[in-house]
Amino acid sequence: MKVQSTTTQQDDHFLISNYDYKSTNIEKNGDKYIAKPQITNFKFKTDTRIPKLGVMLVGWGGNNGTTLTGGILANKFNITWNSKRGTHQPNFYGSLTQSSVIKIGTCNTEEVFVPFKDVLPMVNPCDIVFGGWDISSMNLADAMNRAQVVEYDLQQKLRPYLEKLVPLPSIYYPDFIAANQGDRADNVIPGNNKLEHLNIIRKNIADFKQQNNLDKVILLWTANTERFCVEDPNIHGTAEKLLKSIESSHPEISASTIFACAACLEGCSFINGSPQNTIVPGVIELAEKAGVFVAGDDFKTGQTKFKTCLVEYLVGAGIKPKAIISYNHLGNNDGKNLSQESCFKSKERSKKTCVDDILESNKVLYPTEEELNIDHTIVIKYCPETGDSKKAMDEYIAEIFLGGRQTFAVYNVCEDSLLAAPLIMDLLLLCELFERIQFQKDASEYQRFDTVLSWLSYLMKAPKSESGITTINSLSRQRAMLENLVKVCAGLTIDDNLRLEVRYG
Ligand code: NAD
């Protein structure tokens, strides 16, 4: 695709697009709103050179880590496999960047769509070099077998590639994850000195980058859900205080926060795929100083994706959700870890907040704070027999016309890691892309996006935003935000769906 326009310029290294952003400023005058449309000029500059990307996963030997690594290798080497349903080809279904499309315009009256990944130059997932840590020493072939996610025939075909991959020893603070994880912790960096731990992880990152001749590395936490750390401004509030607390091995410094600090100090962006409060203010300050991004929290895969879609549909239709009751049972190691109350609480929190802004936006349905307080209940039970095929059963009760009720009972089988792996890939590819984009507002200096990368909210259950920026949970708004950003950077027109060119030529 090539954009021919007076508002875009391209040379060997950069694609620059000029964009007049139209927004509406609202002033309140008593009980009236005064709307004042305005236009702000932005310039987006994308570095089109694709780097050699390395990714280090924390929890590499888990269900997500093994499924992602094996799935990418299957695609890279075009490995086919057989099941009772026949021969299967590898694909990237479930990946926004690889398997979804974006409308770029109209050819006569036909709408033209291209793959998301083709709008701006992006890293090919098959070129990513993977590494990482796990508290379990199992090589990735055996770990994939333990995970019981991937079909047996594909596991066998991947074995020669995966058995060579062994996670680095990791830091293990048993107080932060469930006690039942202790039996797999045979690959642990010894000692209790958190500063030494930080330095070892930093060295691991630097070695990985150098040994694989990488241009950049991104770290992603896909290890067990930790309990929330007891956040305290004196411990976590600034970069300096955080580093001091690490130096004194403070008990409220979690393993995930050590990894986040190590990433920032090594100049790598960090993504938190679990719900806990890893990205404390001190981490954000470290990331800011290093010029890297942080993003979180908790992958938005099955049930929550559906929830933010359905609630958006109801509220958008003027129907009033009054209760959401969500039951989950799952039998993988994630479920085993979540069976401990402290870890479940982290998950409950991120699952519960996911519709708040959608409800809050509609003051017709929810005129008071009290009415916003709908019954939203989350139950998670560990049931080993279900393995990675998590069952999500949700009941949505909504109030309709004249006091009537509309009830949805939804049964959703989320093959957890098969949904999560392509999503993790998207997080990595998009984070890498955003590291190559700069913008200029009204002819000011070029700057990078905010340190907390809320552009990735489509992929996060409890999206973290820059302070002062409200969180958007609506799935369609989150997707539109990402789609529009890449279109704007490429110099394409944003689609307002009026389709006037089709209707009136
Ligand atoms: P998993 O239990 O199979 O894998 C986690 C891995 O992390 C294990 O191999 C474990 O040994 C390792 N680990 C634990 N503590 C560690 C540490 N300190 N350092 C290094 N490794 C450590 O879980 P999973 O199914 O792969 O999920 C991973 C995480 O992603 C969980 O927190 C889960 O809640 C989150 N998540 C998963 C999904 C999904 O759909 N799969 C969705 C949202 C969030």
Detailed description of the structure:
The structure is a single chain. Helix 1 packs across helix 4 (152-162), helix 1 (63-76) packs across helix 15 (416-434) and helix 3 (140-147) runs antiparallel to helix 4 (152-162). The mean pLDDT is 94. It contains 17 helices and 18 strands. The chain is an alpha/beta fold. It has a 5-stranded antiparallel beta sheet with strand order 1-2-3-17-18, with helices on one face. Strands 9-4-10-11-12 form a 5-stranded parallel beta sheet, sandwiched between helices. Strands 14-13-15-16 form a 4-stranded mixed beta sheet. A hairpin with a 2-residue loop joins strand 2 and strand 3 (32-47). The protein has helices at residues 63-76, 96-99, 140-147, 152-162, 194-211, 233-236, 239-247, 255-265, 281-290, 303-316, 333-338, 341-352, 356-360, 369-372, 416-434, 475-490, 500-504, and strands spanning 8-10, 14-29, 32-47, 53-58, 81-83, 86-88, 101-107, 110-115, 129-133, 216-221, 269-272, 294-295, 320-330, 375-382, 389-399, 405-415, 437-441, 447-448. Nicotinamide-adenine-dinucleotide (NAD) binds at residues 58-59, 61-64, 133-136, 170-172, 177, 184, 222-225, 255, 273-274, 298-299, 301, 332-334, 337, 416-417, 419-420. Nicotinamide-adenine-dinucleotide is lined by residues 58-59, 61-64, 133-136, 170-172, 177, 184, 222-225, 255, 273-274, 298-299, 301, 332-334, 337, 416-417, 419-420.
